[in-house]
Design goal:
Nucleotidyltransferase, domain 5; disordered C terminus; binds iron/sulfur cluster; eight-stranded mixed beta sheet; disordered N terminus; 16 helices
Length: 501
């Protein structure tokens, strides 16, 4: 028996029904095209690439709704100092601040991976991202990957590095079939880098100031090119530090694209005095969501940008945005049996794929349906905030949301542009007003909130703040489109509705 898709019972029973218009659109599309696919290498290359990223929650924005990842903290040492990092805490280039609960040995990490792979079969990726630099701890890192690859061949392996030692290990990375590598590159101009990195420790020597930064830069570029030559997919993370590298990041974007990076992830600096970082203690602010979006937009014409990064802990477990690491503390997982089962996992992944196909069909029809709705010539681009607990659906109660997904919607498309964290609104009757004020501030530039349900009290306050309330359930893009078409069309747009659960 095929198990249902995991992680949301509503998803497993989702029924996507089409309205008359959409059925017509579907028929027109079928008959209107010759039905031939463009054969030849580019198409084959696209398919190959798609299959490499389609279940990786970080490399594919669509996959992050359905697949989980886990990090194992086996790499304590680091070989550079970043002004945004304090290793008593998770490294800010891959984690949100918070002490890594426990360091693991490779054997413990492999056992944990098998336990989690059994309990959360949609976990598709195992990454090593710290708390230091995985390649400053090469034996622990590669031993962990070896053990996992031997016992769980369907789990994708992934590592994240500052790049300093990368050129030395590309062959080993390739031999272990580690198909995804992230390098954190915050500058390509050492004069900018000098404001971010006080020292670099390379080949048993500490280099301070610009000398160290030059080495780091050269090694990062060399490592990136070597990954490209070895056909390993590379994502580049850049921490946006306002006033230091914000205007410089388009240059970084151009340099990494030229050297074959697949994806660019521009992340906000996380900076607070309590983290004990140089930037935190010296009052260096992180960017506002608007500033982050402006820099991301300035780079987005050139290459694919990641906008769904959650800056996870170095021991994170679960879907992006949910943290189940406390279910798998060392004390707990060492008592659990490693009930990894390849067949069960494969069956679950087939179920996820079928569900994804339904969502994709609904999105395509929503956007095709949108073309049949006439929007006013002055229809603007608007932002909407979405409450979702995964699956690519509007499926969460406003009061349960801990973050909103933000979509930019216009007459042509509904495009995901990022997440915004919010305070819990439901606080058992205490502090809800203050929480609501904070939530409304976080989404003050949004035109509407899309949620499965919103209680009468928050509804009143949301509307008073000039934000529209949309209660619905179904595929996000379809509901966003329906809202937009109703708000800005010159005709009734009800026919462009899509999803009914
Ligand atoms: S930090 Fe970003 S890129 Fe790394 S696992 Fe989390 S979401 Fe993915």
């Amino acid at each position: 028996m095929t198990p249902p898709p995991p992680n949301a019972t509503a998803e497993s029973t989702l029924d996507i029904t089409l309205t008359k218009t959409q059925t017509k659109v579907k028929a027109a599309k079928k008959g209107g095209s010759c039905g031939c696919s463009t054969s030849g290498q580019p198409q084959e290359m696209d398919d190959k690439l798609r299959s490499r990223i389609e279940n990786h929650p970080c490399y594919s924005e669509e996959a992050h709704h359905h697949y989980a990842r886990m990090h194992v903290a086996v790499a304590p040492a680091c070989n550079i100092q970043c002004n945004y990092c304090n290793r008593k805490y998770d490294c800010a280039n891959e984690s949100r601040p918070g002490v890594v609960s426990e360091l693991l040995t490779p054997e413990e990490a492999a056992h944990k991976a098998l336990v989690v792979a059994g309990k959360i079969p949609q976990m598709s990726v195992l990454g090593i991202a710290g708390p230091g630099d995985p390649l400053a701890n090469p034996e622990k890192t590669f031993r962990t990957f070896e053990l996992v690859a031997e016992q769980a061949p369907d789990i994708k392996l992934c590592l994240s590095t500052n790049g300093l030692m990368l050129p030395d290990y590309v062959d080993r990375i390739k031999a272990l079939n580690i198909d995804h590598v992230t390098i954190t590159i915050n500058m390509v101009d050492p004069a900018v880098g000098e404001k971010i990195y006080p020292w670099v420790h390379y080949r048993r020597r500490r280099y301070r100031g610009i000398d160290g930064v030059k080495i780091l830069h050269e090694r990062q570029m060399e490592g990136l090119q070597a990954l490209q030559a070895a056909d390993v997919l590379c994502k580049v993370n850049s921490v946006l530090v306002p006033g230091i590298n914000d205007e410089h990041l388009p240059e970084v974007n151009a340099a990494i694209r030229e050297r074959g990076a697949f994806l660019h992830n521009i992340m906000p600096l996380i900076s607070a005095p309590e983290h004990g970082t140089y930037f935190g203690l010296n009052g260096q602010p992180g960017p506002t969501p608007k500033e982050l979006k402006a820099v991301q937009d300035s780079c987005s014409g050139n290459m694919k940008l990641m906008r769904h990064c959650r800056q996870c802990r170095a021991d994170a477990v679960g879907l992006l945005g949910e943290d189940r690491s406390q279910e798998f503390t060392k004390e707990k997982f060492m008592e659990m049996s490693a009930d990894y089962d390849l067949q069960t996992r494969q069956a679950v992944h087939v179920g996820i794929q079928q569900f994804k196909n339904k969502v994709k069909a609904a999105k395509e029809l929503a956007s095709a349906g949108a073309q049949t709705v006439e929007t006013r010539p002055d229809s603007p681009k608007v932002l909407v905030a979405v409450a979702s607990k995964g699956g690519g659906l509007v499926n969460q109660h406003f009061g349960h949301a801990k973050e909103f997904m933000i979509y930019e919607v216009d007459a042509a498309e509904a495009k995901f542009i990022g997440h915004r964290k919010i305070a819990d609104y439901c606080q058992g009757g205490y502090g809800e007003e203050a929480a609501l004020d904070g939530i409304l501030q976080t989404i003050e530039d949004c035109q509407a909130i899309l949620a499965m349900k919103i209680g009468p009290c928050p509804q009143k306050a949301i509307k008073a703040a000039g934000i529209e309330v949309v209660e619905d359930y179904g595929v996000i893009e379809a509901i966003a489109r329906k809202y937009y078409d109703q708000a800005f069309s010159t005709q009734s747009a009800t026919d462009a509705a899509t999803v009914i659960a």
